[in-house]
Amino acid sequence: MISMKSLSDLKALAEIEANLIPGGIVYGIIEGDTMTWVKKSDSLDINVFYIGLKLDKNSTSMLAIREKRIISQNIPRSVYGTRLHISSIPIIDEEDNAVGAFSFAIPKVHSVLKAFPDFAPMLSEMFSEGVQLRIADLNKIVGTQSSKKFDIPFLKEGVALDKNYIESKVIQSKKPASQEISTLEYGVPVRLSAYPLFDEDTNEIVGAFSVTTPKEIAVTLRNMSANLENSLTGISSTIQELAASASEIHSNQQNLSITINEITALSEEINKVSEFIKAIADETKMLGLNASIEAARAGEFGKGFGVVAAEIRRLSEQSKDTIPKITKLTDNIKEKVDESNKKSQISLSASQEQAAATEEITASIEEITSSSEELNKIATTL
């Protein structure tokens, strides 16, 4: 309790301390049931105490006077527009009667709001793309901190909360919330996150803390990832078509190789037939020669037979002369076939290598596509 004699000293002390109390304070002296003296911090704009105020019998000050003890109460926002902590100390006269009270009211500020000026400047420079931190009560933004890289000029201290602001949504729902805005409403694409602030004693919602970060790099990264994924899908489709073509080419080369081998075998058979014809021609020539000898012995009677024998020898010679030409042609065919076979084998080997390379490329593209999908997921979380 406070003695009447010390009131002048108490007033002098209050005059000094009023502007030294963080968050502000209002002092008041009540005599009987009326406020007779008031001192408040210059930064505080609440009309809780004023000279001439008649106090209700159930007010903190009147309870302190009546019960002759120090009374403290938390006053909800609905009374004065802000939460207050009011304490009243009885003033005692020389007969030890409670004749008044010395009261003071301190705005009750959430711990995050109290610490905001200390942690916000440091935290704001920890975001690589920049950030704006905000803290709001139920009606307006009461504090902001922007990094050097990023700012939202129209969201400043004192700006009333619009119903579409994320702070309003969090206060309404009493739950944390996040959203991404890809339009240029904030100058660049951004991510908004907000968290409700509750009274430590009553668990009443009292405000919100919000974080706004630019997402330009993340959006660019996601777009690049999406474009890369689309391109890889197209390339993969083309590679698959190429792989199918390579497989078909390989199959055709195998069939061609089989056909060339069959032609080579036929050339061998032609050579055998030529050898057989040559043997017949030699035998026919010998028979014609013998027939000519016998015709000569027969004299006049064998003259006609001699003409036939001469014709047989002539045909035999012609057949024999044709054999080298056939052999040469078949040798040329065989040579060309062998050459084609070698090229076919080279093509067959190349098509096999192409098919193997195509499979490797397809596997690599699938791996890159998988990495692109992971990249897109990472970009989404940024």
From TrEMBL:
Keywords: Transducer. One of its GO terms (biological process) is signal transduction. SUPFAM superfamilies: Methyl-accepting chemotaxis protein (MCP) signaling domain (SSF58104). It comes from Clostridium kluyveri (strain NBRC 12016). GO terms for cellular component: membrane. It comes from the Bacteria. Pfam families: MCPsignal. The keyword Cytoplasm does not apply. Residues 238-382 form the Methyl-accepting transducer domain. Gene3D superfamilies: Methyl-accepting chemotaxis protein. This is Methyl-accepting transducer domain-containing protein.
